[in-house]
Amino acid sequence: MNKQLEKMKQNQECERRKRIAEEKHKEWVQKKREEERQERKQKLSKEMVEKVTKELEKMQLQEKADIKYKEWLKKKRAEEAEKKKKEKEKEKEREAELQEKRTRSEKIFKEWLQNSRNKPQPALNGYSFPHGKSTGLY
């Protein structure tokens, strides 16, 4: 009976140890799963933060690029406007010069016309040149 009692105690002790071991194992597994879940959560959170940061940087770069492009475009348009303005000024100057030249030419032509009316006509048959041409004699 003592042996049976002792065997029962040993069985009970063995079962108690098994239960304790199983409980510890379950606790360990649960703890491990919780750690893995926390790790995944942190990793996902970190990835999201990195993704948001990259998107933000990308947006900032895009904004800077847009600003620089607008500045460049504004500068280019100002240069084009200045170039057109200079071309118009040159064209006006050329037009003014041409007009002045025409006016001067007309004035000179009128003066020549007036002077040519007052000049005497050359003699056509003078100095033994019949019809104003030489006859071959010196």
Automatic annotation (TrEMBL):
**Region described as Disordered: spans on this chain:** 25-46, 78-138
What Pfam families does UniProt report for this protein, alphabetically? CCDC34
Basic and acidic residues bias: start-end ranges: 78-110
Species of the source: Pycnonotus jocosus (Red-whiskered bulbul)
Lineage, broadest ranks: Eukaryota, Metazoa, Chordata, Craniata, Vertebrata
Chain ranges of the Coiled-coil domain: 2-135
Q: What protein name is recorded for this chain?
A: CCD34 protein
